[in-house]
UniProtKB/TrEMBL annotation, chain A:
Coiled-coil segments: none
Organism, scientific name: Desulforamulus putei DSM 12395
GO function terms (MF aspect): flavin adenine dinucleotide binding; FMN binding; glycerol-3-phosphate dehydrogenase (quinone) activity
Similarity annotation: Belongs to the FAD-dependent glycerol-3-phosphate dehydrogenase family.
Protein name listed in UniProt: Glycerol 3-phosphate dehydrogenase (Quinone) subunit A
Top-rank taxon: Bacteria
Lineage start: Bacteria, Bacillati, Bacillota, Clostridia, Eubacteriales
Listed Pfam families: DAO (PF01266)
GO cellular component, one term: glycerol-3-phosphate dehydrogenase (FAD) complex
Cofactor(s) demanded: FAD
BP-aspect Gene Ontology terms: glycerol catabolic process; glycerol-3-phosphate metabolic process
Domain FAD dependent oxidoreductase residue range list: 8-332
Annotated keywords: FAD, Flavoprotein, Oxidoreductase
TrEMBL record, chain B:
Record's protein name: Glycerol 3-phosphate dehydrogenase (Quinone) subunit B
Domain FAD-dependent oxidoreductase 2 FAD-binding: 6-404
InterPro entries named in the record: FAD-dep_OxRdtase_2_FAD-bd, FAD-oxidoreductase_2, FAD/NAD-bd_sf, G3P_DH_GlpB_su
UniProt key word DNA damage: no
Organism: Desulforamulus putei DSM 12395
GO molecular function: glycerol-3-phosphate dehydrogenase (quinone) activity
Keywords, in A-Z order: Flavoprotein, FMN, Oxidoreductase
Amino acid sequence: METDKVQVVVIGGGATGTGILRDLALRGIPAVLVEQGDLAHGTSSRFHGLLHSGARYAVKDKEAARECIEENMILRRIAPNCVELTGGLFVQLPEDDPQYADRWITACAEAGINCEEIDVQELIKKNPVLSPNVTRAFKVPDCAVDGFRILWGNVNSARRYGARVLTYHRVSAIHQSNGRVTGVELINQLNGQKRSVECEMVINAAGPWGGEVAAMAGLEVNVIKDKGTLVAYNHRLMSMVVNRLRPPGDGDIFVPHGTITILGTTSTTVDNPGCTKPGHNEVLELIKIGQEMVPELESYRLIRAFAGVRPLYQENSAAGGRSVTRNFALLDHRQRDGLAGMVSIVGGKFTTFRLMAEKTVDLVASQLGVNAPCRTAREPLTAPVSEELLERGKKVFGVPGAKKAAERLGDSFAQVVEQAEKNPDKGRIFCECEVVSLAEIEHAAHSGDSFTLGDIRRKTRMGMGTCQGTFCSYRILGALSGYPQFAGNHREYLTKFLQKRWKGMRPVLWGQQLREAQLSTGIYCTLFAMERMR
Amino acid sequence: MNKYTDVLIIGAGLSGLMAAAKAAELGKKVTLVAKGMGAVGLSSGCIDLWGYNLEDPNQVCQDPLAEIARLCAVNPQHPYARVQDVLEESLLFFRRVCQENGNPYLDHRGGNWLLPTALGTLRPTYLAPASMAVGDLQQVRGVLVVGFRELKDFYPDVLAANLKKSGVLQADCPLNTLMVCAGGGELTPNTLAHRLENPAVVDRIVDQIKPHLLPGAVLLLPPVLGERWDSQVAKNLAEKLGHPVYEVANIPPALPGQRLQQMLLHHVKGQGVEVVIGCTVNGARVADKRCTEVLATGAGKPIKISAKTVILATGSFLGGGLESKPGKAWESIFRLPVEIGHEKWSARDFLSMAGHLFNQMGIKVNEHLRPVDKTGEVIIENVMVTGANLAGCNHPIEKCGNGVAVASGYKAGKLAGEVGE
């Protein structure tokens, strides 16, 4: 069995885990991040992509609200290519309690969140999809954020400072001796090989799996697994994030991202942290509530539904769902349970991932005797793409292709442009819906972290658009058949990819998406007879 | 604008074009209107009749006509049970039309062809255009898969790897791949097909392939060998190489389906059928169980069309013939009922061997292809329903979509032709 040695092991490749990895790396603490699947396969890519201003939490949870607005401002600064400065709205409908609005205005002011009342008539004129019944509307500094890009920004930055990442490695045991963690045992999920890593500290940042990870060290951490279902529309329905001005509930957030809009979310407690099946009834319920703000919602084309599991933390386990705080908790197991060398970071939300990482690494650094201060709030996550490079990109990928690729790739854009300049065939667009070139796909395939078409999808967004991979998945399989990890197992790779996409399409199979499904079965069953492929 | 016609066909897919061809042959005044180009252009271009054995759905069916006869006995709700009387006749008619137009379709001694696809899978089909009709792969002494550098939708290595896995070739059969260049740049299947109509380009391809030819090898190429239905590109390439050359089925856009569609359009126009593409039918007037008028829009102008017979060849959800909302589905022009059953519309597995209910959803008809309600009562007397609109056909799994389209289109055309003055 292969044995490794490192100072800190971070468990979990979501926003928090990668944020911690970056923070450790910037402070010069050698670390390895271990992740059971691909990076961002869990909660960090399964949310509405809202960078909260904090206004949503202002009334109920002032501390969370204050953290949100501070982190919101930091992320805009350090990761401009991951944040779309849409601005946000809170709209009140006649059925909403008017007194809540007044409490909310005061609470926002106390939390330091700018909120400005705007003229309703003007608003409806600019955003005609909104209900004409809106009674009051306020502007807040909400934004849209790309979870994938943030994660990759964290990882790339951490790697530059020497950190390592092991994806598809599941922790199977946490070793301890004399009340101290001594290391972890890992199983490679792709080939079953075992591997152990000796370390001084383990950071449990496993999100919804946090309770399971803690249990491996014999600890009890009560993570409430709260499933939220969301839907993606094939239109940019509005130019700003739109929230409902009432206590947080289901189906009350619309977030525009590029050409699509995400509507979320629901809240259901589940047992399995991997339960990401979007429910058909939850989808219908979401749309029904969403219609109160956007009356014509039924006539817009849905692309898919998806679900993520929020890891909510409650020290004692009575509450669930929306009544549990969205705040995070840092558990020092030395103090709490008498096990040195292990901390768990639980709860929280995407917007505050950096702060969670900072607090966690502050604790870990102090236990390791490292004095270096946190630098993640100041140091840019990715260097901006220069105008000159963008112009070069436009020549090889076309204008929309270059813009999208530059946003997705950040620091790596230069390499991808170079590849396409050297070999013009690589400038070809393979995923037409999301305008992804062969050069970008090969870049993702080369990264060393890509083992499935799904891994490439998460890195490039290929297959995430209107056709949901019907055309590009087959094409990309062909283009990558020269790579050892993709050669020879076409049926399995393609089936897995198509099945994952299918899971998201099934709950929204009506209207245009049912047509798309007929085309898709027409190609893979009628034409390719893939259901009987050997 | 007002139009009067004997037979109005809505939809330019395979069943609509078949109906038009037959009704015109019987001397009727026929008008065909369609919103778009019809799904036959997206299809393989082959006529799948029935792919697998009823008892063992993994076993390729050796006698599709006999199997369909058995099917009709065990599943009288299948659309084939409504068109069984004309099935063979419709296939003969189809082949005659193809032959006359210089695009012969071949059968495989009454059984199924087993044709390779671009993915390297094998698909059973009953009639194939000559350019696709690869004989028994078990017998071949070598295969060379040739791709074009200009094309991003065809990968010889993928085809070869999976064809090998399929086990259809003899163990020692050489299987090689080759990429050739047809002049560079990025081309779509259509622009490549256009370029290949130039004999000089074909000569350059021949030069690139020749050094790689092994004795007895069969060549498999993407479906781009020629634009028109009577194109000689595949034939010329084969003659110049001295080896058989075939196109394999691939994702759209692919030429064989488009050629079939263009050929049938050309044919029906030659038969005097008035064809209006880009014409959307929005609704219809029905009085006394008869459709008196169809309301359409073409080039931004309203058109009213009266016809003795209306044939609804509008192509299921994909073609826009059926529409849906959560828990509801209906036919879009006449609001004919679409039974949705109590089950889920789709299976959990995308590639489920049971298929998906949404592909079987459609309009119930009687033996005259008239739409009927739950009790079997005809809803509109002078409307007939064809092709993918018919309920009860699990075509992606059964491999029978184009077969049902040929037979039901033909039957509707024939019945419309029998309607008196």
